[in-house]
Amino acid sequence: MRLFWLFLTMAVILLPLAAQAVLVTPLRDALSVIEEKEVPSKTEIFAPFVSRLQGELKNNLIRLSWVDSPDVRGPVYVYRSSIPFETTGLQPEIRPVEVPYGIGSFVDEIETGGTAAALYYFAVASDQEGRSYDIPIAYTNTISIQLPAENSASFVPAAVPRQEPGIPPDKPFGISSLQAVARDNGVLITFSEKQAPSGTSGAVLYRSFQPLRQTPDLLGAVIVQTKISSPFTDYPVPDIPYYYAVITEEDLIRGTVEIVPGHNATLAPVKVSTGRTGPGQDIRAMPLPQISVQGAIPALGDYADIPPPKELSPEAAKALGDLPARSADAGLKTPRVFARDIAVPQAGGEEYALSLIVKGSFAVRNWEAARDELIRFLALPRSPETKARARFYLGQCSYFLRQPREGLFEFLSIQDRYPIETREWIQASLDMLKDTQ
Questions:
Q1: What pLDDT sits at residue 165?
Q2: CATH class of segment(s) 339-436
Q3: Residue 358's closest CA among 379, 380, 335, 378?
Q4: How much is the average pLDDT of 367-379?
Q5: Over the stretch 257-286, which tens digit does the pLDDT of each residue have?
Q6: CATH of domain 51-154
Q7: 3-state class (DSSP) for residue 384
Q8: Which of 250, 258, 227, 252 is nearest to 59 (CA)?
């Protein structure tokens, strides 16, 4: 009987403890699983939209800038309206302007004298398959530009379509009637220029060995001088045919450069002859007589004028092979870059585009490719600081390509912004220019 009550008492005491153990074990196992389970990484959000859309109004030009989407890499379509896009959405009658991916900016020209108090812009990103993501997001891909009362704009809902190549654009400014004629020891350049509405005057003269028929042909041309006016005389290397083109600074600022042969580019090449008059003329009527060494020294008759080639000994060939090859840049300065162009994060915009050039063709010293990329980069509107650094690299490319005159022009144009950095390069370009004359 005592044993019965003893077992019963132990059962009453141990049964809750066993139940508690049975319940705690699965709970502990569940907690350990949660602790050992890896915390999922932050889910990346698919954001096919441009960001940080900004606008700046100067005279009758509005400069837009944005950061391209890292998720879609198609062109960006810029829409303009007199009504906010957040309330009306994308109206089908509005025609956009297409901007390639990576540019990150656009300059729009407005007409003065209207009644609109503000203009609204909508930058729509798209992918390479042509699918656009036209969802307006306030302060991200849409922006409003307030216009002053005395400079209100007359709104044009549809963007003006681009002209076909070869057709003169219908615009109130530009270059026409360009002619290049050889005169004495130079080339006389004459043209007609219509001043831009913004008041910007002046033109840029390009010279090339190849015909200038399309805008990309300017990449291989040389800028002779800026802010020229008609007439202008160029002094190229004699006996070499050259083609010329004159582009207004307004087109370069807006990024609307277009070559129209016969209007702002010459159709036929022009060449300066070496026949000059004056003190530099060769007055010798007959050349000096040639001296025959074999006739003067008969003992040399058994030898040929040019000795036959002789192979080097293995020791001499090995010694020549161990000598370091002379570099094309031997005796020249060391290229220099700004630290901010090396540590630019991978994002859109002009800073990232310039960084790609610096860390690409410029870093591997492919000077011709770097020069072409920098010229194409500067053909679009850029901020003054970014433009100055790009011209600093362009001047170095011209220096290493043995074109000191072009490099000197680039360094002098940014001397006020970077006086210390350009001082040594200006001196080096002057030394090279003196040696080549």
A1: 38
A2: mainly alpha
A3: 335
A4: 91
A5: 888 888 889 988 898 886 544 444 443 434
A6: 2.60.40.10
A7: helix
A8: 250
CA torsion, ordered 333, 334, 340, 341, to nearest 10 deg: 100
> Are 232 and 189 a contacting pair, CB within 8 Å?
yes
Identify each DSSP E strand in 90-242 by its residue range: 97-99, 105-109, 111-116, 118-126, 132-133, 142-146, 153-154, 174-183, 186-194, 203-208, 222-228, 232-234
- Side-chain-side CA neighbours of 163 within 13 Å: the count stands at 13
- Return residue ranges of the chain for CATH 2.60.40.10: 51-154
Query: pLDDT digits over 340-369, tens only?
Result: 887 766 666 788 888 889 888 998 999 999
pLDDT for residue 108: 83
Q: What's the pTM value of the predicted model, to 2 decimals? A: 0.32
Nearest-angstrom CA–CA distance, 405 and 408: 5
Q: How confident is the model at residue 150 (pLDDT cuts 50, 70, 90)?
A: low
Q: Is the peptide bond before 404 cis (omega within 30 degrees of 0)?
A: no
Q: How far apart are CA 401 and CA 329, in angstroms?
A: 9
Joined tokens for residue 348:
């859109």
Residues facing 79 on adjacent strands: 122
pLDDT at 153 over 50: no
Q: Which CATH number fits domain 174-254: 2.60.40, 3.40.1090, 3.30.70, 3.40.30?
A: 2.60.40
- The alpha carbon of 240 is separated from its chain's Cα centroid by a whole number of angstroms, namely 30
- Start-end of CATH 1.25.40 domains in the chain: 339-436
pLDDT tens column, 225-251: 888 888 899 988 888 889 999 988 888
Instruction: Lowest mean pLDDT of 120-129, 144-153, 390-399, 417-426, name the range.
Output: 144-153
Q: Are 227 and 203 in contact (CB under 8 A)?
A: yes
Bridge partner residues of 189 (DSSP): 180, 232
Rounded distance, CA 194 to CA 42, Å? 57
Residues 105 and 276: their CA atoms lie apart, in Å, by 50
Kindly state the tokens that stand for 55.
Answer: 């606008």
- Return the ∠ at Cα 87 (arms to 81 and 92), rounded to 5°: 50
- CA 432/CA 287 separation, integer angstroms: 33
pLDDT digits (tens, 9 = 90+) for 120-133: 899 999 998 888 88
| 145 phi-psi bin (left φ>0, alpha ψ -120 to 50, beta other) | beta
Going by C-alpha positions, the residue among 374, 367, 368 that lies closest to residue 389 is 374
